[in-house]
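Running this now, will post back.
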Amino acid sequence: MEDDFDQDVLLDVRRLSVTFAGGVRALRGVSFQVRAGEVVALVGESGSGKSTSGLAVMGLIERDRGAEVSGEIRLRGKDGDEKEITGLSERELRALRGNDVAMIFQEPMSSLNPIYAIGSQICEAIRIHRSVSRAEAARDAREALDLLGIPNPDRCMVSYPHQLSGGMRQRVMIAMALACRPRMLIADEPTTALDVTIQAQIIAHLKRLQRQTGMAILFITHNLGLVAEIADRAMVMYAGEIVESGPVADIFGAPRMPYTRALLQSLPRLGVTRASGTRIEAIPGNVPSSARWPSGCAFHPRCRYVVAGRCDASEPMLEACDTGRHRVRCLRWRELEKVAS
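Update: finished.
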């Protein structure tokens, strides 16, 4: 990873570790950068640490409940100044959230307030960060809804969350997140509960808005199909660590980490049918408990290429391969290059 925090870098995360009460280690030394105008996907199974990474960047880890956060999270705000997230007070974090960095959560029904109209909620978010009148905030809220392709924004403004469909509520959440024009958006599984048609519409809107505004997006998902569609770069997480990262074309075309290979092989694809005698290859076992990660490589209990006495004894480092933009955490990646993915 780069050591400098140049003007193109919006987010610089270094050696981020998060431990919850009871010794649950959700993140273990995670480091990555996101540049201006870049879409970076954070991929992995449930329990890998994806959402915890997003919450940490937003300063939403509840330390008063026994959580410990270490490492650095540096964000470049709209004013060009560098902010160290882990050192900010709650008041400073509230000023930053929604203005410099915003987040879309995967379940809009639990994120929207059921007793307030949609317009009131978006206007409140706008007026917290900008000195505008109610009329100006309402105008900007309508514009944000219109940008998301919501038909009849005026009607949506006076509607309540329960009166909207799931896809419409998710568009409202995106509109609210973008209303103050943040430089960076964190999208945590924004299409998980939606059918594939609505998923495609939401992704199309995100791509269009990203091109129009130039904002950076950290896209958190378990859906590799969406990664191929929206992201420039991907980071694969497992057991609280990044195990592979690089340009999307490299991750899909030449995966080095056995876990990444296994994820790709588990995808449904044309030609895999009962009649053809082929099967989708499931990854054996489960993600290990974050209260007790395996020794050595965390993936070794599920890995088809494991070597006893090596993979379970030495913890691999994230190292560069190819041009250096592609990085992998595996003791055997050089040996496995000749093995068909």
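The CA atoms of residues 203 and 229 lie 8 Å apart. More later if anyone needs it.
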